[in-house]
Specification:
By secondary structure, the chain is an alpha+beta fold. It has helices at about 25-35, 35-40, 55-70, 120-135, 150-160, 195-205, and strands spanning about 10-15, 15-20, 75-80, 90-100, 105-115, 140-145, 165-175, 180-190. It has one domain: Gcn5-related N-acetyltransferase (GNAT) (Aminopeptidase). InterPro entries: Acyl_CoA_acyltransferase, GNAT_dom, N-acetyltransferase.
């Protein structure tokens, strides 16, 4: 369950580390996002208010950090530790949001990965690592991921991890300027008695 010690937290497996997003990450985060602008554009959240704007980087971090402190979200950056170095390269972002306690014990997970590092198993490894933490350490029962039907790369992530396809949600989120359909995928703790990470690492294709 949630406690004051639940955040901040770093999660690690091999060279991959999930760590909290920080104000001082703005320059590198912006550089990676700008380099991936075309890659991410079709899947980007947008504001349905024609006069509205998305939050700035600092507004985003402030909001996510406040949610993390009260057990409503886990805002991580996905990083890779460089061999023989203390430096870590930013390769993406993963956020567990909408955490609901009480009788639901559920959350929603979203992520993006640098196009230059796509196809190497980073996204499924990060999703498995975060989901195991939520199930095993926080006691959550259900994790949900919602994906555009056209987003083949993200569909491969939930396929690899064997998330259950729970069907289409018409016009679910405002994406790239319009209300967009999403497919909903989920796992409950009973679905993965051995966790997600261990079996994924044991069976992942060599090229990942």
């Amino acid at each position: 369950m949630w406690s004051a010690a639940s955040w901040p937290v770093n999660l690690r497996t091999g060279s991959l580390v999930l760590r909290p997003i920080r104000y001082r990450d703005k320059a590198i985060w912006t550089a990676v996002r700008n380099r991936n602008a075309e890659w991410l554009a079709p899947w980007e959240a947008s504001n349905p208010d024609p006069d509205g704007q998305l939050p700035t980087y600092h507004q985003m971090v402030r909001s996510l950090t406040a949610q993390a402190r009260t057990g409503q979200a886990l805002p991580f950056l996905i990083t890779e530790q460089q061999p023989g170095s203390r430096d870590a390269r930013l390769v993406g972002q993963l956020t567990v949001s909408g955490i609901t306690w009480g009788s639901a014990l559920s959350a929603t997970l979203g992520y993006w990965v640098d196009a230059a590092r796509a196809g190497r198993g980073i996204a499924p490894t990060a999703v498995a690592l975060a989901t195991d933490y939520c199930f095993d350490e926080l006691g959550l029962h259900r994790m949900e991921i919602n994906i555009r039907p056209e987003n083949r790369a993200s569909l491969r992530v939930v396929e690899k991890l064997r998330f259950r396809d729970e069907g289409l949600r018409p016009r679910y989120l405002h994406i790239a300027g319009q209300w967009a359909d999403h497919r909903s995928f989920a796992l409950t703790a009973e679905d993965v008695p051995r966790g997600l990470l261990g079996p994924w690492l044991e069976n992942r294709p060599r090229r990942d």
